[in-house]
Design brief:
Elements (H helix, E strand, L loop, with lengths): L1 H23 L1 E7 H6 L1 H10 L4 E7 L1 H14 L5 E5 L3 H6 L7 H5 L10 H5 L2 E2 L2 E2 L2 E7 L1 E5 H6 L9 H11 L21 H11 L15 H15 L13 H7 L4 E4 L2 H9 L7 E4 L9 E10 L6 H11 L2 H11 L2 E2 L8 H4 L2 H10 L2 E2 L7 H17 L4 H15 L13 H27 L5 H32 L6 H5 L10 H7 L2 H32 L5 H16 L2 H11 L6 H8 L14 H25 L4 H9 L4 H12 L1 H16 L3 H6 L12 H11 L3 H32 L1
Parallel strand pairs: 1-2, 1-3, 10-12
Antiparallel strand pairs: 3-10, 4-5, 6-10, 6-11, 7-8, 7-9
Length: 746
Amino acid sequence: MISKVRLFLFLTVAFVPGLLSAESEEITVWAMGEEGNRISVLAQAFESENPGVRVVTQAIPWNGAHDRLLTAVAGGLTPDVVQLGTTWIPEFAEIDALLPLDSLIGEGEIGAERFYPGSWKTALYDDRVVSIPWYVDTRVYFYRSDLLEDAGIGEFPRTWQGLEELGEALTRDVDGDGTFDNHAYDLLARDYGLSVALFRQAGASIFGPDGKSSVASVEGIESLSFFRSLVSRGYAPGPSGRQIDPIQDLRTGYVASWISGPWMVELLRTQAPDLNGKWMVAGMPRGRHESSFLGGCNLAVFRNSTRPNLAQRFVVFCSRPDIQQLWFSATGNLPAVRDAWNAEELENDPIWRVFKNQLESAEPPPPLVSWAAMESAIENSVEDMVINERNPAETARELASRLDSLYPKGRRGKGNLSGHGTLVLGGFFVFFAVIVALWVLAPALLDRTSSWRRVGVSAMFLAPAALHLIVFMLVPLMISLALSFTNYDIYSIGDWRTTSFVGFENYQRLVGDARFWTSFLNTVYFLAVAGPLTIIAALTAAIILNRRFSSRVRTFFRSSLFLPVVTPLVAVAVVWRWLLAPQSGLINLGLEWIGIEGRAWLTDPVWAMPSLILMAVWKNAGYSMVIFLAGLQTIPRTFYEAAEVDGAGPMRRFVSITIPLLRPTLLFVVVVTTIGYMQLFAEPYVMTAGGGPSDRTLSIVLYLYQEGFKFFNLGYASAVAYTLCLVVAVVSFLQMILAGSREGRI
């Protein structure tokens, strides 16, 4: 026994301290997208240089990363080190979630001179170092060098004037039908990076030292006029909301060039090997100045990191030139450190040399908390100018006013929720709790013959489901309703005490919000057209399938028509986006085969919404068809046989028998279709680049999403949500009242 005790004590003394020290030398790193899948390369290299240290990495998809990080901050469950997009850094720095890294500069391990000027600007916020550049990207022109040679142009132009001359030389109407078949370049109206670069090339800054936008200056108007002139003269194909297949457009010569980042190099080399040796890259042509958009990602340390020193060591490690070269070899991401560009694979490649030169003048967006809203404002204004042929000066003035209104007014102080605001919000919770309690107990209270013992037994069985509904539905609904009467936003996520009770201010703002009314009218248009078409298509299909076909035929067509319903909506939207592509889409190719000219369906202001309606009807008609088919099969066939004996024709039988007996089913389908189509979201989000062109497909739910989860005006977004809820409730109630009144007349 004594020997066993000695052995236990020996093992405890030998291994427990090691386990504790190993645990104390562990950090967690979150990275996004492909970087998250490959950051283990850097983690292993760091661990090999630091024995006893463990780096736990976690990959997060880009599309949900921003929301997840904010949730982690609010819940105090952040990692030690995180990859942040350069435009995200001001938000997290403003809510004081990031650990200042100025001490790293003082130790001489990291300095501004090691990085490109624009890249180092992204590391700062309020003159503090809050992150360290990890990798960078910038925009350059990708162009078909062989097409330029055929036109007698030796190199891609370096000035605005040369860009116009290139457009004149390469834009052609090949078949003589009055429409350009080849364009010199593709310029996206919904590309804030291009717009910001053009402003800076003209000599206009987004914001001056006084915090006022200068886009309405002579230089700003000049940049907008230049962009519009390139599109209006046909040098670019138009205000496309999103490139469907840029590589195919370059391959066919539909466009001779377009603007993109370093990731496109590998895509062209692998997906278009037939173009190898026929394309090249060039820096952005300059106006008065040379400039391009600078993006990329930085590494930051969260303030509540349990091992801040080790986390900072990892960040410094990732900034070493040799590690930056290792990261480039593993991912193709361009190094943010100047010395890392001495690597042979970067130094000897003419393509990467163009990127290296462009990085010297590339500039990031202003470090502002509200930059996401400003991005949207810039894209909407430029797109509206091009589509509606608006005056550039008028567009510039309206854009400047919008940007000025979005400029942060400074850090927000403490809110008023500690006073009367808390009482008001608490009142909402008490009010809803009483309503729920009365709703649950109403049957027992109204039924005098019911036994409370029986009610108690029933409540016991219902308790799990009721608890689930209360916790995951009623409580969130109550909280969101309470938020709609506050100014809850990005600042509140960092510190809820900055939130204030604002009463009906958010609802009053809705009345004067032009984008809200645009989204409302778009949703009504979608519902008014798509709803009846869906019901008519579903009812027609159900009537046909209700005829006396063989069971195999009926099963085949019923399954085929229902298959789109069970297919994920995002997958359907992506497929339809390809079908509706202007150049390579099957719909346009089919129309061309029968002699009809196709259109840019999703970027045409007139045809964008009808395109979404067509897809929605195809996607959703199968669900209503199954319900109608079930209702039709409950109608006795003897009614139809008797009507035939009396000489009633098909239309008379449909009007006098089918519709009256199918009325309850029809009411259900109408109400469900209305509720579903009022929640239009995925279709414009995926297919039209978030509501384009020029907000022609912006829906209420998409607008709510933008305000709440892109701009983080969560209080205002909650007001939009409850306004939509009220509209849906009123419309559904009126439909049921109307159906009831008709039922009474029959």
